């Protein structure tokens, strides 16, 4: 399953303080915990803070070394979470391809999809069939009838109450609580833009670690920005390290 390089012992020492405390865990018993999972926010951006060239486009920003870092982080989290915009735009694998990672090391892909827009034939589902990843959990709003078509056996639909504003919105605390109740003790939130911006602007308390890869390029004005609607106080416990051509910045958000 490996597609990436192993990180050096110096890389691992750098990342150590930002990794969930107890490493990979896969006890998925229901009601395992009422405690919120250790939550990491991690993504790659350009020097102008953009995460993809245009809405709905997949853009490779991380070089091979920082891509290895992402897979090392995936190895150390119980779940990876993305918004449905990312699931549709990127058709991602959302598995761990770090050297030595086996099926039992795989994180649980979680797709936040209140209106059940995501299809069933994506990459992440194909990998379940090939034994290279876990069945994704799709978080859908209660009573959304499109969800009925999703239970293909390779997807598990979880329902959650959504605030019905202009578009349905789950409270992030409820999302994390529902994952904790299913045995998830650490979750790596990868994006996309609306997820990152919402969490940074409104839910800093829920984030335990931030790990951002900065690629030495500019994507320009039409690109999708990781830029919260309001200013966010500077991170604390900040460290950075070069991974290939990229800078990786880690820190914590002041509570
Ligand atoms: N460079 C990087 O590291 C990454 C880049 N991306 C890029 O981001 C772009 C996608 O970003 P977006 O279009 O903003 O999509 P997104 O992935 O943030 O998904 C947005 C959708 O997710 C759902 N959602 C998000 N938060 C919710 C909440 N609290 N409650 C209920 N539903 C919620 C809504 O349906 C919303 O429309 C893609 O181009 C992708 O390539 C995505 C992840 C990482
Ligand atoms: N770390 C990182 N660097 C980039 O350059 C990226 N474009 C992303 N995107 C995120 O990774 C997902 C793709 O995962 P797979 O390789 O298909 O498993 C994508 O959906 C984004 O969440 N990340």
Textual characterization of the structure:
The protein is an alpha/beta fold. The chain has one domain (9-252): Dihydrofolate Reductase, subunit A (3-Layer(aba) Sandwich). 21% of the residues lie in helices and 25% in strands. The strands form three sheets. The protein has a nine-stranded mixed β-sheet, sandwiched between helices. Strand 4 (108-112), helix 4 and strand 5 (137-141) form a beta-alpha-beta unit. The radius of gyration is 17 Å and the shape is globular. Mean pLDDT is 92; it is low at 23-31. Residues 43-44, 51-52, 55-59, 61, 82-86, 89-90, 112, 114, 168-170, 172, 190-195, 198, 224 line the site of 1,4-dihydronicotinamide adenine dinucleotide.
List ligands, each type once. 1,4-dihydronicotinamide adenine dinucleotide, ligand LIKH6CAM
Question: What name does CATH use for the topology?
Answer: Dihydrofolate Reductase, subunit A
The CATH homologous superfamily is called: Dihydrofolate Reductase, subunit A
Count, helices: 6
- CATH top level is Alpha Beta
Q: What is the number of beta strands?
A: 13
What's the domain count?
A: 1
Identify low-pLDDT runs: 23-31
The percent range for strand residues is 25-35%
Task: Give, in order, the helices and strands.
Answer: HEEHEHEHEEEEHEHEEEE
What is the residue-mean pLDDT, rounded to a whole number? 92
How large is the radius of gyration?
17 Å
What structural class results from the helix and strand content?
A: alpha/beta
Q: How are strands sequenced across the largest beta sheet?
A: 6-5-4-3-9-1-10-13-12
The main pleated sheet reads as: 9 strands, mixed
- In angstroms, what separates the terminal alpha carbons? 38 Å
The coarse silhouette is globular
- The second-level CATH architecture is 3-Layer(aba) Sandwich
Helix fraction, binned, reads 10-25%
